[in-house]
Structure to design on (282 residues):
């Protein structure tokens, strides 16, 4: 089994991700931060008890426990992730089946699941539509595919300084364009997730968007994600060459907990991030 999985994951279609890549800490931070909204999305799907669910791209596995709770622990939730480090992290917390596998070559028989759930995953593929078609094959007749994606609407961090916010968003896009050799059009393609479900032949395609909204004062989980996952992990020094020196200096001050103007302690801090999920049935 291990050798077969390794063979499957050796030729991945993921953009930048590999079986050796490890960003487990950022995934943990995001799941703790967005747990209320993600749990609401799971509950809204009203999955019948006794169902078989696949979390494709399960990361560090927190959602598997939420799925078990939604089914009153009467069904089966299976997790799959490409990265070995993420699989280890998920196995450490999830009392369920976790496998290492490539989304484009999943190690499951066709028709194995009643619902496939994948969040912030298909946007990592060179060909997202191919990923949707592959996941569709794993569904039983009448099964549902749910594709979730955050930040289809540009995020808002600095409500009091829209100009700097826009410059930072542009700098992030420029960084990822250089890192992955992708065009602006490639990064915007994720907004086509409803179209991907239609093109795969799914029926009753519906979509819902909810805003993750946070204001001062922040909870510990919210501040940790924004500080460590965004201010340090996504922005930080990597944006220096993409910003004017004065803009980078201002951003550095806003992101520094030791600075009097630290953004996350400002009483006017107001953060918005969209969370969109599209669902369709076979």
């Amino acid at each position: 089994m291990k050798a077969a999985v390794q063979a499957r994951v050796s030729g991945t279609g993921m953009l930048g991700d590999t079986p050796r890549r490890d960003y487990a800490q950022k995934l943990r931070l995001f799941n703790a931060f967005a747990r209320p909204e993600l749990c609401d999305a799971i509950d809204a799907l009203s999955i019948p008890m006794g169902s078989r669910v696949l979390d494709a791209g399960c990361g560090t596995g927190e959602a598997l426990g939420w799925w078990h709770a939604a089914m009153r622990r009467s069904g089966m939730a299976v997790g799959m992730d490409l990265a070995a480090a993420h699989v280890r992290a998920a196995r450490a917390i999830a009392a369920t089946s976790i496998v290492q596998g490539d989304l484009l070559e999943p190690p499951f028989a066709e028709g194995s699941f009643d619902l496939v759930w994948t969040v912030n995953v298909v946007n990592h593929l060179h060909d997202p539509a191919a990923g949707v078609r592959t996941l569709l094959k794993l569904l039983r007749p009448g099964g549902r595919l749910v594709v979730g994606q955050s930040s289809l609407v540009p995020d808002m961090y600095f409500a009091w300084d829209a100009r700097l916010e826009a410059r930072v968003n542009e700098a992030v896009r420029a960084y990822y364009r250089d890192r992955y050799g992708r065009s602006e059009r490639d990064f915007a393609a994720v907004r086509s997730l409803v179209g991907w479900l239609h093109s795969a032949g799914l029926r009753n395609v519906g979509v819902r968007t909810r805003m993750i909204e946070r204001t001062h004062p922040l909870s510990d989980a919210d501040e940790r994600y924004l500080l460590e996952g965004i201010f340090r992990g996504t922005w930080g020094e990597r944006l220096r060459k993409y910003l004017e020196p004065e803009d980078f200096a201002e951003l550095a001050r806003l992101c520094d907990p030791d600075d009097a103007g630290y953004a996350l302690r400002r009483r006017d801090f107001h953060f918005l991030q969209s969370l969109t999920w599209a669902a369709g049935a076979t």
About this structure: The radius of gyration is 19 Å. Strands lie at 52-56, 76-81, 97-100, 113-119, 139-150, 203-215, 270-281. Residues 49 and 73 are 8 Å apart (CA to CA).
